[in-house]
Amino acid sequence: MKKENLKIICDQIAACKSCKLHETRNKTVPGEGDVNAKVMLIGEGPGAEEDQEGRPFVGRAGKLLEKILNSAGFKREDVFITNIVKCRPPNNRNPEQKEMKACSKFIDAQIAIINPKIIVTVGSISTKALISDLIGSDGITKLRGRIFDWRGIKVVPILHPSYLLRNPSVEEGKPKWHTWKDMLMIKELINKP
Ligand code: URA
Ligand code: URA
After folding, report:
1. What is the dihedral of CA 9, 10, 16, 18, to 10 degrees?
2. Where does residue 137 rank: exposed (0-12), middle (13-18), buried (19+ CB within 10 A)?
3. Environment class of residue 10 by beta-carbon count within 10 Å: exposed (0-12), middle (13-18) or buried (19+)?
């Protein structure tokens, strides 16, 4: 049933013209993964490679995200990965408020269908988009690794892998080190009853 319901959302995304991003997209990127996933990752929006393939996080940042997942014992196939907006913003600009608003019905529906135990917001854009009313004016470096409650689901923000590509040091206290620790904490949360 979950699978059929997700497919309906997928078809609606493919036909969506609710914002101007549909004019410049190549493919819609609805998201993919296990319909029964306990962990759902939400990024910002498709980049060039994602727009070509119609799949989320398949470019350089995606490969790093997959490594981070694997290092904590997750397989990419076992989680569900999607984005706040399902069409690529031209030149990788940030999605606009009205684009995120137009697209929010899809992420709401996907969360409701999958009903994950934990949502991991990847980077500051999706964190703000999902839990803006819980975070005040704190930036992502203060929000990452903290646990928020959103409609009964735990939300844990992490740093965006694009940011980690620009800050590759794995030294203690650096962004990558924090992200690895955050993923291990997420893994522990999942294993808790
Ligand atoms: N960055 C994102 O936020 N999402 C993707 O799908 C790819 C890169
Ligand atoms: N800016 C972002 O959008 N995300 C990060 O993780 C760090 C800086």
Report:
1. 50
2. exposed
3. middle
Q: Which two tokens stand for residue 110?
A: 């996907």
Ligand nearest the Cα atom of residue 143: 2
pLDDT digit string (tens) for 131-145? 999 999 999 999 999
Q: Which atom of ligand 2 is nearest to the CA of 44?
A: 3
Structural domain count, the chain = 1
Q: What is the CATH number of the domain that holds 34?
A: 3.40.470.10
Q: Is pLDDT above 90 for 193?
A: no
Q: Which two tokens stand for residue 104?
A: 């929010």
Whole-model pTM: value is: 0.97
Contact call for residues 100 and 57 (beta carbons, < 8 A): no
Range of the domain at 97: 2-191
In the chain, what percentage of residues exceed pLDDT 70? Answer: 100
Decide whether any atom of ligand 2 lies within 6 Å of the 74 Cβ.
no
Distance 129 CA to ligand 2 centre (A): 13
